[in-house]
Amino acid sequence: MSGSAVEIANLLYRYAELLDGGDLEGTAALFRHARIRLPGGERVDGAGLLAIWRQYVKIHGDGTPRTKHIVTNPILDIDEARGLARCRSYYTVLQAAPGLPLQVIAAGRYHDEFERVAGRWRFAARDYSMLDLQGNLAEHLLQAPPG
Predict the structure, then answer these.
(1) If pLDDT is split at 50, 70 and 90, which confidence band does 40 have?
(2) Residue 41 carries which DSSP code?
(3) Which residue in 99, 86, 88, 6 sits closest to 58, CA to CA?
(4) For the chain, which domains are there?
(5) What are the residues whose beta carbons fall under 8 Å from the beta carbon of 94, sequence distance 6 or more?
(6) Phi, psi of 99 (to 5 degrees)
């Protein structure tokens, strides 16, 4: 894997690590320069994404959402000369919480765009609208999302 491919894959994995650690602010900071497409077509920036997470994601007593986001199958298309990249990947969300045994609660796809600025890759866009499978979200969400 090229240096760019590793750096981009690490952004995918850093997202999961921060979110599963309960660091909503740090997770949203990864998207501060990005355009985010939500289910229903709404578009937000990193600050808007943070506001949504604060409204909907349940943080448990240990300071985390009690989840593990597993990001797999990244298919990268990198244009080194232009400093642009696209990635399609799968995600699977596992959760175990009080009263909820370890189980898959969601699975879907991310379509991401990246840009290289000052020699570093960063998120430029993410499409969050592709939730393919949904399980028990009762211990993950504070309320049902709109739509």
Answers:
(1) confident
(2) G
(3) 99
(4) 3-134 (3.10.450.50)
(5) 67, 68, 70, 102, 103, 104, 105
(6) 80, 0
The CA R_g of the chain, rounded to the nearest whole Å, is 15
Token output for 17: 């690590």
Q: How many CB atoms lie within 10 A of CB 121?
A: 22
Q: Tally the residues of the chain.
A: 147
Encoded amino acid at 119, one letter: G
User: Is the whole-model pTM more than 0.90?
Assistant: yes
pLDDT classification of 1: cutoffs 50, 70, 90: low
Alpha-carbon gap, residue 33 to 46, rounded angstroms: 7
Contact status, residue 124 vs residue 108, Cβ threshold 8 Å: no
Is-contact 32 115, C-beta < 8 A?
A: no
Token couple for 31: 């998207």
56: its two tokens = 């909907």
